[in-house]
Amino acid sequence: MSSQSSSTRDISDKEHLSVLGYEDSFHRSMSLWSNFALGFTYLSPLVGVYSLFAVVLTIGGPPSIWWIVLVGAGQLLVSFVFGEVVSQYPIHGGIYPWTRRLWGRRYGWMAAWVYIWAMIVTITAVAEYGSGFAASLFGIEVTSTSTFLITLAFLLVAFAINFSGTKSLARVARIGLASELIGVIGVGLYLLIFQRHQSFAVFFDSMGTENAGNYATAFLGAALAGLFLFYGFEACGDVAEEVESPAKRIPLAMMMTILVGGVSALFAFGGYVLAAPNLADIVSGKDGDPIPGILNASLGIVGGKIFLVVALTAFLSCVLSLQAAASRLLFSFGRDGMLPGHRWLSRVSPSTKVPTNALIVACSVPATFALLVYFNGNLLVPVTAFAIIGIYIAFQMVVLAALRQRIKGWRPAGPFNLGTAGYVINVAALAWGVFAVILLAIPGSSGDFAADWVVLLGLGVVFGTGLIYLLVARPDRKSDAPSGDAIEVAAKLRAHAAKITTQV
């Protein structure tokens, strides 16, 4: 595997964009560290572990922790493929331009349609879950009204920071990164070293969660422990035109996001399990929200409050990163004329150099979903469930498109290149992704039709409406943006690099 291709190393960011057919119109003020922070706070191990800790323990017991390792390994393969793609196509929007340039306009449009809705409902879900931390910190009674107002405050504060420019986004993302690391690694290590009530052997003890003596079903059901956690690294590529040397730095930032996020999640999940005074009550479902009790018992009241501040910062950073990624995808969609109101969506502020109108959409639509949750609190779970499978499907549409191009003879021309290992890694990433989607799509067995099938029903609605719009409105015909040109662009990049080398 090579992270530096001699054929393209001398091409500047501006020249690279020019070869791809775009002008350099953003401030490149985001460093590798800031780009990594953006992806990490979107991935947010603190949010993932806290949200599903009790649920996965009741399904699969302490061995559920191994899903963090399994899913992390699978998603690392996906990040390798993404790294090659973004290294050749370091442009705003991530999954949308990648799929369009790798396959075609209609394929790219459907991938982006699924991904944008999954991302928007993820913004809503994270803000909703974060409202509980804010209510606990400030002693606010948790009601549907207070939850809605706090959720709205999350969205508006994140919007204000994003609106002020990329430097503010990067600064708060770095603060969020520090908060995440303190909240998951710092607290996790403290619990492991000083507050351990269980032995490490507990991670091989199902604690009675097996079904009729068969633990395999229970373990597969606990896959959410990892599946809910390992996405967000793609956000590093969503802001590619605001990163200095994105073709080299973004692939590295993606991999760092997964590796550091996975280690952080292991410390957090493992620390909470080992520090639980009565783990049996959590596994049996008697204690449905165990983490506050574990923290108060281990850190004391003051320590618990400090953790709430850290958690609140992490949730805000996560919403901030999600909004930023969603707005860049909407901007990219609009720039290529693929959505109604595309000229309005593609406007960039002359002063802050951010897509302000796309940001308005990335804030207002999640606020609308939050209003729906206010009127029907039962909608939050299906909103979260759809977000996970929608994003995994969009991921695999990129991986499949990359494999199709490899079969046709594509040799990625970006500075990050997998070389001869690319084909094998691409196939392995696709196999892993299909397996993950199947796990997410398996209907529940509660007997409640709506609850058991809600993920597939939601996915069907999004795919159905997207397909109808695509066939009726034909947005692909209204855009002259380049598509399906991976092999051609690779040749142009190599020729351009060779010309620069000759001139030098």
TrEMBL record:
It is found in: Membrane. The chain crosses the membrane at residues 36-59, 65-86, 107-127, 133-160, 172-193, 213-231, 252-275, 306-333, 354-375, 381-403, 423-442, 454-472. It is a multi-pass membrane protein. Keywords: Membrane, Transmembrane, Transmembrane helix, Transport. GO terms for cellular component: membrane. The keyword Membrane applies. Pfam families: AA_permease_2. GO terms for molecular function: transmembrane transporter activity. This is Amino acid/polyamine/organocation transporter, APC superfamily.
